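G., the chain you wanted modeled:
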Amino acid sequence: NLALPTKVIRRRVAEMAAFFGMEPWFRKKTSELSGGQKQMLNLASVMAMNPKLLILDEPTSGLDPVSRDELLHIFKRITADKARAILFSTHITSDLDRCADDITYIQNGNVLKSADKDTFLRSFDHLRTSEDKQPLTLEEIMLRTERSDFDETAL
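Predicted structure as tokens:
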């Protein structure tokens, strides 16, 4: 609890409950909450400590589409004022499409590319073929990179 006075802790819990829309859950046991609600509860408990950086490992993994959508929306709200940042690992490229500002692609423990999203996407143009009429998506970049003998010097 960061050695904060009880009054401060209660205020922060109330703020996070309102921010996350969790007031209706107060009387429920955690075993009665859905997977998405448990993820929100975990996130809210950390946010009550007012961190500047959240580091999350696969935060949307295993969530249903509605819960995933809600969590990604919360991520956008958390970072909207630019006072906080979220770093998260994921294999779900559509999550990155929705909320990433910057992307770091790690393959076999090596950083292949790290850049803002637009620069990142353009840096993989060499993977395009004559059949590609549109820019490559993050998913296409990942699939083509993982399936090929990727030449790191091409970046």
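The radius of gyration is 19 Å.

Shout if anything looks off.
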